[in-house]
Structure formats: structure tokens, C-alpha cells
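Need a sequence for this fold. Nothing fancy.
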């Protein structure tokens, strides 16, 4: 039987007692109705994954004792960083969820010329916290121990300036078909919002050494493009 997996930032060691509170305690106690003796899996990138047995359940917390570490082979060896134009609500959530399942390392939300989403600093902080929870939930489901980094939103020009020349791909329906050639040390994908990127933004990406790539004859939605692109990359250079 497959155990439910829970992410925690607490250090994990064999025999340690871990106390979960807040949303996680509510999920275990109220949703899953955890009882003493029941087993779950706790994980994080630093410690790996451990089987954990419930020792006690209260209204506000759940105590679990860790057993031995479990071997996990769900992480990809292919580092990928997506720069994704900001899109509305569920579209952004879907893109982050599926990118996590497909092994993305870092995702940077981007302010672009055609982005319809405008965020104040306060709203941006709340959205990043929400997106981090989406990524955690996806990692729990897909078997990863590493949760992708979700950066604070930044301008497309600032993001492009951070990409080493020759390590970027621009999703562009007028570009060359498919991912070819030698695999870069780290893959950077630029994906526009619902309205795509502007000609000026495309020119800036090309000056930075980005390669335009076309994913078939159909124009993909902004939330679909990361799924198709990451699948193609994993087929070409990764673990699919």
C-alpha cells in the first residue's frame, strides 16, 4: 500500500520524534483521521524520506516517530529553470503543479509586456507562498523529495540577464522544431503569458543567446507549454 507523503522542513533522523502542527496536523488528524500506529512518509531535500509512525494525535498537533530512511529515485539529474510569464489564477497553479511533477528545478514568474497580472509587493509575497504550497503538494504526490524553488516575480529583462549565454530556449511557434544538439549544463526555458512575448522581448532573448524552439504545428496555451516542453526535454536528455 502506498503511504501518504508529507513535506516538512524539520531535520529528519532515524528514531527522531517529529511534531506536526497547523495545516499538516489538520490534514492528518481531521482529513486522513490518523491514529497511533498508522504510518506515513515524511521528506525534504536535505534529509531524504523516512517512514514515520504516528505516536499521538491531539487537536492541534500530531507526533510521529521516524524509522529508517527510504531510498528515492524520483529526482531528475537534468537541472531546468523556467521563466514563465505571469498568468491568471488556475493557469499559473496548473503550470507549477505539472512542472514540479516533470522535475523542474526552479521556476521564476515573469512580468512581461503582455502579462495581464499586476502584483503589488504584498500580493506578490502571498502569491509566491501559495505557489510554494502548490509545488509542495505536487512533490508529495509525485514522489520527489526536492521541492522546486519558486522565485519572486521579476521583469523578463532582469531574468534574461541572469541566464548564461547559450543555455536558454525560447518557446516560439516560428522557431526550429524540437530540442537538439548537446545538452546545456542547465536548461533555461522562456515561456510567455497568455498573449505571448513581444517582438522586443523576443529580440532581447535572442541577443542573450536563446534558441527559438517550436513544439509542433499547434500553438499551445501558456499552462500547457511547460508540460510539453519539459516532457520533450526529458525525452531528449533526461529520464523518460
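Here you go.
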Amino acid at each position: 500500500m502506498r503511504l501518504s507523503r508529507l513535506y516538512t522542513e524539520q531535520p529528519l533522523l532515524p528514531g527522531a520524534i517529529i511534531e506536526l502542527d497547523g495545516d499538516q496536523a489538520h490534514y492528518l488528524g481531521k482529513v486522513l483521521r490518523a491514529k497511533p500506529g498508522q504510518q506515513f512518509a515524511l521528506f525534504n531535500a536535505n534529509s531524504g524520506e523516512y517512514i514515520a509512525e504516528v505516536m499521538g494525535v491531539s487537536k492541534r498537533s500530531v507526533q510521529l516517530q521516524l524509522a529508517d530512511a527510504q531510498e528515492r529515485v524520483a529526482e531528475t539529474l537534468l537541472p531546468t529553470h523556467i521563466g514563465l510569464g505571469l498568468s491568471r489564477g488556475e493557469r499559473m497553479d496548473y503550470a507549477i503543479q505539472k512542472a514540479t511533477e516533470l522535475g523542474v528545478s526552479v521556476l521564476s514568474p515573469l512580468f512581461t509586456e503582455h502579462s495581464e497580472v499586476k502584483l503589488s509587493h504584498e500580493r506578490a509575497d502571498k502569491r509566491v507562498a501559495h505557489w510554494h504550497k502548490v509545488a509542495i503538494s505536487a512533490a508529495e504526490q509525485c514522489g520527489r523529495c526536492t521541492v522546486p524553488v519558486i522565485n519572486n516575480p521579476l521583469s523578463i529583462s532582469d531574468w534574461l540577464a541572469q541566464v548564461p549565454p547559450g543555455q536558454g530556449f525560447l518557446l516560439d511557434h516560428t522557431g526550429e522544431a524540437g530540442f537538439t544538439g548537446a545538452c546545456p549544463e542547465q536548461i533555461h526555458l522562456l515561456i510567455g503569458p497568455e498573449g505571448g512575448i513581444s517582438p522586443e522581448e523576443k529580440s532581447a532573448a535572442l541577443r542573450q543567446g536563446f534558441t527559438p524552439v517550436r513544439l509542433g504545428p499547434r500553438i499551445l496555451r501558456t499552462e500547457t507549454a511547460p508540460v510539453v516542453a519539459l516532457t520533450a526535454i526529458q525525452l531528449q536528455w533526461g529520464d523518460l
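For context: The chain has six helices and twelve strands.
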